[in-house]
Design goal:
By secondary structure, the protein is mainly α. It has helices at about 40-45, 50-65. The termini are far apart.
């Protein structure tokens, strides 16, 4: 049995598409147990780049609605 010259060479089958796999976050940025997750529709999500901007917009909406009650 001979060794592969390149350690990255392997015999994985071509039908296995590893490029479509998602990477799980580990460490400090991983969700904690009990955290709330909300899914946004694509048209809404394209307007908000991160959770901070969503929270800012919702807080603004809360202030406006409280002021007009």
């Amino acid at each position: 049995m001979r060794k592969n010259e390149n350690p990255m060479d392997d015999e994985i089958r071509p039908e296995y598409d590893l490029k479509s796999l998602r990477v799980r976050k580990v460490g400090a940025k991983r969700k904690t147990v009990g955290s709330l997750s909300v899914r946004l529709d694509p048209d809404v999500a394209e307007l908000f780049p991160d959770s901070e901007s969503v929270n800012e917009a919702l807080r603004f909406l809360i202030r406006v609605t409280r002021d007009h009650q």
